[in-house]
Specification:
The complex is a heterodimer of chains A (161) and B (185). Helices cover 17% and strands 29% of the residues of chain A. Chain A is α/β, with parallel strands linked by helices. The longest helix of chain A has 12 residues. By secondary structure, chain B is α/β, with parallel strands linked by helices. The chains are: A alpha/beta (161), B alpha/beta (185). Chains A and B meet through loops of A and loops of B.
Chain lengths: 161, 185
Amino acid sequence: MMIEPILASLQDQIVKTSNSYGMTEIEVVPSELVSVVQALMTHPDMPFTFLTDLCGIHLLEPTPRIGIVLHLHCLQTNTRLRLKCFSEKVDSPTLPSLTSLFSGANWMEREAYDFYGIQFVGHPNLCRILNEDGLTIFPMRKEYPLEDATRQDKNDSMFGR
Amino acid sequence: MSQDSRPAPQIGPSPEGVDGQGFFLTTVEKAVGMARKNSLWPLPFATSCCGIEFMATMGSHYDLARFGSERPSFSPRQADLLMVMGTVAKKLGPVLKQVYEQMAEPRWVLAVGACASTGGIFDTYSVLQGIDKVIPVDVYVPGCPPRPEQIIDGLIKIQELVQSEHLGRRNSPEYKALLASYGIE
């Protein structure tokens, strides 16, 4: 069983297909994310029933984009698939939630919201999971400095800048 | 060999006072200071590698009990000394403050290691840049992590503060202003 025919049947919902780091990678149209994952999950010959990981990503090149990366695993054929999905809005990124398909997506989507501010539509409890509740920023976005911004005892000249 | 040839037990120095036949006169403050100094109950608040060094400090080899800290208290309500050892995340800050608030007066705080003192190498959005952002600290122990000898040195510094603290300090306006600056009742 090859994955190509499955992806060919979904080509209207896929932006592009590539192969990197020994894994097939597809980028999905955001509005079709749930239907694509559901089709892959329920495929009779190659069901991708296991959600290995879901994380946020912020790319600056070629254009600034915020999205998610999913790793799906078909346990029957031991096939892995990397799936990317980018929101059209960079300022307030919005993507459909996968919690209706995978319960395990719940905390992973909360983490992606916590660090990148991605709004997952349909998530039952989208709130911060690791950071303090009072945090006003989404710290893994590349617009924020890594260093703590509240410190006042750091003299820039001591750090060569 | 008779029992008399054993070395005499070592007794710590007595406070300043008048020594007489069958009596000893000193001030209440000095007597209380000496008693408090030699019966500190520490509450270990250990979050990372400094906590491992504390475990060695508390163990038989370094033996913190020699300094009167025989009983580590795992309830803040019966503790005199809060020993904060390790990285405190900003999310943990309110928890640490609540533990401090549950301690009865008089209470002291020892910040052990670079992270508890300043945030250490974790100069980042998620880590508290020193526990003195949320609670007042009496003694800071440097090191990453400090050796047990350094932690004991910090404890002895605390003992010196405890012994010399005058009895009215906890009711003084200065102390109340200090707590108020941290938003503690």
